[in-house]
Amino acid sequence: MIYIYVSQPISNMKFYPVLIGSTLFIILGTKAVQNKDVLEQTVNVATLALSVILQALPFILLGVFASSLIRYLVRDDWIAKLTPQNAVAGVIVGSLLGLFIPVCDCGVLPVARGLFRKGVSMHTALAYLLTAPVINPVVILATAMAFQWNWHLVGLRVVSTFLVGATTALLAGSLFSPKAFSDREWHRHEHGNPQISLHQLLLHASDEFFDVGRYLIISAFLAAAIQIWVPKGILVQATSNPFLAAGAMMLLAMAMSLCSDADAFVARILANQFPLGSVMAFLVIGQIIDLRNIILFAKNFRLSLFIFLAITSLALTYLLSLSIDLGLGKYLF
């Protein structure tokens, strides 16, 4: 009998989703060998998915290292001294903080809670929480490269994220008490420790890298499969209706749970099939409400605040998508 030792419980092993996906793809590839057309399509899916993964990996590496470094070296009280208490000004500042504290969606919650504990207003902390994964230098650069340096699309993503995140934060901060944002235990997420070692920094960065990487691999293959294998007739029916296209892309973004450093590369594939507004919906809502954030928000916020953030951001993103596809967005963008 052979015994295999693992350093952590099987339920916590992060390679299982990738292992399952790879196994299914191998099985499909075995079947494809028996059919020349299917074999060619399978090769096209693999090639398209791998090209997305290889282009996104450098930005994921840069993002997780920047995120880890910022979380451990930037002190919360430094930022708290510079942020205004006025609601509108606080939301604007909070929405732009990601340019100076470029933390990805994997680590933005602990930073936002730390800022709030140091005296930053709830409006500012929520605005940072909802917008920082997109409005930061690494993600802006990644989006520009993914869409072949189309700065109009980059600006559209930044403005859309700002409108949805800032509006949601302003409403939530006005309707809910600070206890809804801070009444859970979260001391174990403490950051800003000047005594952090290089070894601990690298461990944290590598953990985030592999956590993000598994979602990228699965999502890249899924997006490639949609483009290659889904019958064109079905896609035409879905994409010709902006109401349906927006909803489909939002659901896809939430299910994929992609890191903000990589989602633009997957969105570029889908952009060949879906209208611009629905692609923007994919890029905006995926960094506010996805499977990972649903778990984190539900665990750390009061249920009422969590539901409000989810419903408001979903509704605003959907309306924004429709405004772009129906031509109403020309007054905003």
In terms of topology, how is this protein built?
Blueprint: H1 16-32, H2 36-73, H3 76-80, H4 87-96, H5 108-117, H6 122-131, H7 137-146, H8 151-175, H9 179-182, H10 198-229, H11 232-239, H12 242-256, H13 263-270, H14 276-285, H15 291-300, H16 303-325
Helix pairs in contact: 1-2, 2-7, 2-10, 2-13, 4-6, 4-8, 5-6, 6-8, 7-13, 8-14, 8-16, 10-13, 12-14, 12-16, 14-16
Which terms summarize this structure?
mainly alpha; disordered N terminus; 333 residues; 71% helix; 16 helices; 0% strand; globular
- Mean pLDDT across all residues, rounded? 76
What does the overall shape look like?
A: globular
Return the string of H and E elements. HHHHHHHHHHHHHHHH
Largest sheet: none
Low-confidence stretches: 1-13, 185-194
Helix content: over 70%
Written overview of the protein:
With 333 residues, the protein is mainly alpha-helical. The chain has one domain. It has 16 helices and no strands. The radius of gyration is 20 Å and the shape is globular. Residues 1-13 and 185-194 have low confidence and may be disordered.
Quick gist of this model?
The chain is mainly α and 333 residues long. It is built from 16 helices and no strands.
